[in-house]
Write a structure and sequence with these properties.
The protein has about 260 residues and is mainly α. About 60% of the residues lie in helices and about 0% in strands.
Length: about 260
């Protein structure tokens, strides 16, 4: 992952589930799977899931399947079902449950965590858009900050909508266009974001935000050499700016590994 952890720290994103299960999910466990807090889940659903986990290992998966049938559009239940199945060594069924979580409620933390578990060799979460400013001075910048807040809350579709609004309102603003591209990134289809960012790098060759975010997406994609190149270009456009300092942080983190 090289500098993936540093990227998450720079973004200020808190990952809501520890993915240590990646390396040994195939072994049955005496302890139940962890309950993953998801603010988008109704309290009743969260309570039912907790009750099912307390029954571990007897009947937990069966109870979670019943709850999933009762709440067909809830991702938390399917995330936890996948964890229960993985802890029991049923990895193929677990992956199907996590895919169902992503489809049932894609604009939720549980869906993001499910994607992490289905793609264990990538940094957790999604690459964030980092504004080059702290306070909004325009309506477009307000949209960008709202989108960034949605990303921090692990609400990718809501973030994508805010970023798209900003890009439509400012079609010649490299920051707004970059945010709209970053918002399209998914672990299932990273090309959707790269197909937007690549042309932006040619259109705005000296836009620090384009170079920085292209480097960040390349980290998540796993192409570290090209990521370092883009981050170095971003830093060269201004090492003391907000994005320049973050580019430098990522480059230094990569040197220490």
């Amino acid at each position: 992952m090289i500098v993936g952890a540093a990227a998450a720290a720079a973004a200020g994103i808190t990952i809501g589930v520890t993915l240590a299960t990646r390396s040994d999910v195939s072994r049955p466990r005496s302890k139940p799977p962890p309950f993953v807090v998801d603010p988008t889940a109704p309290p009743r659903v969260a309570s039912d899931v907790r009750d099912a986990l307390r029954a571990w290992p007897a009947g937990t998966a069966r109870r979670l399947r019943i709850i999933a049938a009762r709440y067909p559009h809830n991702a938390l239940v399917r995330l936890e079902l996948g964890l229960a199945l993985a802890f029991a060594g049923q990895n193929a069924d677990a992956r199907r449950a996590w895919r169902d979580a992503e489809r049932a409620q894609p604009d939720s933390p549980s869906a993001v965590h499910a994607a992490d578990l289905r793609h264990p060799n990538t940094p957790p979460g999604l690459p964030p858009f980092l504004p080059s400013f702290v306070r909004a001075g325009t309506a477009v910048q307000a949209d960008l900050l709202r989108g960034a807040a949605y990303q921090q809350a692990l609400r990718p579709l809501s973030a994508e909508r805010e970023f798209a609004l900003s890009a439509r309102a400012a079609p010649n603003d490299p920051g707004a266009l970059t945010a709209a591209a970053v918002g399209l990134y998914s672990k299932e289809d990273p090309a959707a974001a790269f197909s937007r960012l690549g042309p932006l790098a040619r259109r705005f060759p000296h836009a620090q935000t384009v170079r920085f975010h292209l480097g960040l997406l390349l980290i998540y994609f796993g192409d570290v050499p090209h990521a370092r190149h883009e981050l170095a270009l971003a830093r060269a456009e201004g090492s003391r700016t907000l994005l320049g300092r973050r580019a430098d942080t990522l480059l230094r983190a990569g040197q220490k590994r």
